[in-house]
Design a protein that fits this description.
By secondary structure, the chain is α/β, with parallel strands linked by helices. The protein folds into 3 domains: 28 residues, no CATH class; 110 residues, Immunoglobulin-like, CATH 2.60.40.3500; 240 residues, Aminopeptidase. Strands 10-9-11-14-12-13 form a 6-stranded mixed β-sheet, with helices on both faces. Helix 11 packs across helix 13. The longest helix has 34 residues.
Length: 436
């Protein structure tokens, strides 16, 4: 036994040592080897996954959308970004730390994207704060109310981190409307004569260009974006309405920025609009679909296509990016109450007049007014319609939508329908300019 204990000492874990300890010890030793090999493999795998996650967390796109309502800064990545945001005073600054290295300089390109006319951002600076953390500093023109939130992948977007900069006092749509020349009094008739006594006040039309900013809407085969077409037609319609005696228009958005569906409705109600007209350009899964349509709000869609289209439009808040605390919890109740008011009846009258005029310049997708649960039509006290000008997914109609002459014809047809409605349904006396 003494001789067995003496002599050369085998290395721990060697087969000789295991054999000297007997079969049970050998099995335990082998299990120890297997556990260590498994641990090493797991550590290597974890290291690889960590490296892969870090690569996926790299920012792949950045965007800035400046507007009078608010400015939005967006960081898009393949994986969710960790972040921290804090404010500094004297001067006003916001500091955003992102869990990503700016390997390709994509975040740094934000510095050149800041427009001189941006209402809120004066200068934007980007730098490496520490390994794995990029710092974005926003020098502000005034104190703002920041809101930051993350969005999961949807449509063509990956993970997005959104920073919205709101003014402390939101701009008042009614004040902006009243600042227009000639807005405080009924316009004079031709020849310098006083306006007819029948003009009690200016009728107000809220015109809503669909989509915008982060939400491009539908895309035609030639790359035409719905958000661009709707803004062009809406601006033409506004100019035509403003040129009419006794009428004025206000746009829910006047530039390329995103506006939530709820905010669009709130703007119309803030100016006590007499009518709300939302302008869109259809898209459908089949490219041969064509024609113009006019929709009103209903819980019961008139067709499967109407239901599908309403869902596509209502998904704008998911695509454009809305913080959860801005969602409207009362939509369902509004839809129920709508059937108990006269608003729906007036919406149908307006829709019928506009649809009839559209039929003079384009094929109608349906010969009658359609109904669906469009969230943007939910104002309980403003007759509201949604006009699908044409199918942007149809190559022929896409070309027409790009034509300025067709855009003008479309705007004039909508104006003609609006005028027909007002001729039979004069503006309410409690509108935005009443008793002024």
């Amino acid at each position: 036994m003494a001789g067995a204990r003496g002599g050369a000492v085998a290395a721990p874990g060697s087969r000789r040592a295991a054999g000297d300890r007997g079969p049970r010890a050998a099995r335990l030793a082998e299990r120890g080897h297997a556990w260590r090999r498994g641990l090493a493999g797991a550590l290597a795998a974890a290291l690889f996954v960590g490296e892969l996650a870090a690569a996926q967390a790299q920012v792949i796109a950045t965007r800035i959308w400046p507007a009078r309502d608010y400015t939005r800064v967006t960081f898009e990545s393949r994986a969710a970004l960790d972040y921290s945001l804090f404010a500094l005073k004297n001067p006003e600054r916001l500091v955003l730390d992102l869990s990503a290295e700016d390997a390709d300089g994509l975040i740094a390109t934000l510095q050149s994207k800041v427009a001189a006319e941006d209402p809120y951002i004066a200068v934007l600076r980007v730098g490496l704060n520490r390994p794995g953390v990029t710092r974005v500093v926003l020098d502000l023109k005034a104190e703002v109310r920041p809101q930051v939130f993350a969005l999961k992948p949807i449509a063509d977007y990956g993970h997005r981190l959104v920073l919205d900069l709101y003014p402390l006092v939101p701009p008042d749509p009614l004040v902006a409307l009243l600042e227009l020349n000639g807005q405080l009094a009924a316009p004079a008739a031709r020849g310098g004569e006083a306006a007819p006594r029948s003009v009690v006040r200016l009728a107000t039309v809220a015109i809503d260009p669909g989509h915008g900013g982060e939400d491009p809407g539908a895309r035609g085969r030639r790359g035409t974006l719905e958000k661009d077409i709707t803004l062009l037609i809406a601006k033409r319609l506004k100019a035509l309405v403003d040129a009419e005696p006794g009428m004025r228009a206000v746009l829910t958005r006047d530039g390329d920025y995103y506006l939530s569906l709820q905010a669009r409705v709130e703007k119309a109600r803030a100016v006590k609009a007499d009518l709300f007209v939302s302008v869109h350009a259809d898209a459908f899964i089949r490219p041969h679909a064509r024609g113009s349509s006019v929709f009103t709000l209903s819980r019961r869609p008139t067709s499967d296509a109407a239901r599908w289209l309403a869902k596509q439009e209502n998904d704008s808040d998911l695509i454009g990016g809305v913080s959860l605390d801005t969602r409207d919890p009362y939509l369902k109740q509004v839809l129920v109450d709508l059937s108990q008011t006269a608003t729906n009846d007036h919406s149908m009258k307006l829709a019928g007049a506009v649809l009839s005029e559209l039929g003079q310049i384009n094929t109608l997708h349906k010969a009658q007014v359609e109904r669906a649960g469009f969230a943007v039509l939910k104002a309980p006290d403003v007759p509201s319609i949604l006009v699908e000008t044409a199918f942007i997914s149809n190559p022929q109609e896409e070309r027409r939508l790009q034509d300025e002459r067709y855009q003008d014809k479309m705007a004039r047809a909508m104006l003609a329908g609006i005028k027909r409605y007002f001729a039979r349904n004069p503006p309410r006396p409690q509108g935005p300019l009443a008793q002024r």
